[in-house]
Amino acid sequence: MTKNIRTVLLLAVVILTPLLLYALLQVKSLEEDEETANQIYQKQLETIMFSLNQYADDMMDSWVRKLTNEKHPLSKNASDLLLANESIQMLVIRQMSNRSDSICVNDYVISTDDTRRNINNWYDSKDSVLFQLTKYLDAGFQKIQPATDWQAISGLQPAQSGITVMLYDRDSTLYNALFILETNYWIEQTLGSKMQESAQDNLRIAVLQSADTLDTPRIAFSTETFDLDKDYIRNELWILPNTSLAIQTKGESYAELIRSRSRNNLYILLASISTMLLGTLIMLRNIRNTVRVAQLKSDFVSNVSHEIRTPLSLIKMYAETLMLGRLPSEEKKKHYYEVIHHEAGRLTYLVNNILDFSKIEANKKTYRLEAQDLNEPIPQLIEHYSHTLREKGIRCELSLSSSPLLVNLDLQAFDEALSNLIENAIKYHGDSDQLKISTYRKGDYACCQIQDYGIGIPKSAQRKIFDKFYRVEHALTQKTKGTGLGLSLVQHIMTSHGGRVTVDSILNQGSTFTLCFPLNQTSA
Question: Residue limits of the Histidine kinase domain (predicted)?
């Protein structure tokens, strides 16, 4: 790790650590605030529900007091209570000593034999409950309890709920009173006004009924349209079985407002942290790229120096040998002249690459496009490389299109692009002795393909090879000197011609580079 990167990482830690700590503290504070606010809000709503429950309980206590009014017999009190309250469908008074029943029903109720049978079935299943209620009564506490497990009977309104209580008449005879209520009417008549008063302008209050806590509840009564999909607080209604009171706010609930604020604050914090992290990453990336480019430039200078020194040394050595006249035959002289010519060509190719790159960097590189047949310049260029190909033992197969491929071309630039690809194919041919160059038409493009069977290019490096100074990290490429500019120049040339260069390569199996030029309209 370089000193620059270590410095940036240290700065990032110094900047981000306080921000992250603040974010954690803020999140914790928000959670505590939300929990406190929710507790306060819940207490307020629970207070309202307790008040409604107490009101309902008080109403039932008043009924029991009227029922046990010692001024009149129990049967007379029961009849008066039934007439005064239409919500009572049926009132059963059972004397516990002999289990005889007195059944009072409202005008709209039809009493049948099934009615008495259902009443007896309920009493038979509640001996323990009635015994416990009697113990409460004897202890001085008259408990009113929901009549659970009540089975709806025919002849009554479908909405049926039961309430039971133990009591003594004025003769101290023990009785049980079983009230069968028309649930919806009782809720509306008994609780409706109180619910409206408690709801005021900012709450909705509803009575919900469900056979099971997991079932979706049914709204028996509500002060306004009640939305079961929104947040609400729900507690059991003491006096009725399977019935509960529910409260929700109009508009957004307090909990929803707190959650919304918490989310907004968290989004701001996350956005701030993300921005800082992104800025740090961009800074690190820029520094890394700067360091990498600096290193690549250093390697470039070293490679260029080596590339120039090698042909210069050979030219000098062979020229000195020729000047001293130490060669025994004309054939040997001819070979030396060919080597000097070849190395001078290499040197020219290298210098041209560097000059072209400098012009591209300075945005001064221009191309002169003329209508040309793509097939024509290729054989001449291959002939230029004949000596090198023979020296490396590589056979070059040339397969040109049978029909002309007319494109707008800068011949010198095309020579440079093709030369770079041929140079690479020769450098990295590995153990292969084959090279194939072909031209063909593909849609609206004329293509020149250079295929070798050498070391290939890893998949991970195929998108980077056209970057300036980039060289694939491979044992053979590290041993083979190069500037890292060739493919960058090829891409710039193809882009300037309105074409493209593509690569298809498999590691250790070879690479195929394709230059695609738009066809001239006259030949399309």
Answer: 303-521
Polymer length in residues for the chain: 524
Please answer whether residues 435 and 425 qualify as being in contact, where contact means their C-beta atoms are separated by less than 8 angstroms: yes
- 56 assigned to some structural domain: no
In tens, the pLDDT along 412-450 reads 889 888 988 998 888 888 888 889 999 999 999 999 999
H helices within 362-449, ranges in order? 377-384, 386-392, 411-427
pTM, 2 dp: 0.46
- CA angle (310, 311, 314) in 5-degree steps: 90
Confirm whether 19 is domain-assigned. no
Residue 200, pLDDT score:
80
Residue 447 counted as domain residue: yes
As given in the structure block, the two tokens for residue 454 are 């050498």
Residue 60 lies in a domain: no
CATH, residue 511 = 3.30.565.10
Q: What does pLDDT average to over the chain? A: 82
Residue 373, domain extent: 363-518
CA distance 220 to 192: 11
- What would the DSSP string read from start to end of 271-316? HHHHHHHHHHHHHHHHHHHHHHHHHHHHHHHHHHHHHHHHHHHHHH
Structural domain tally of the chain? 1
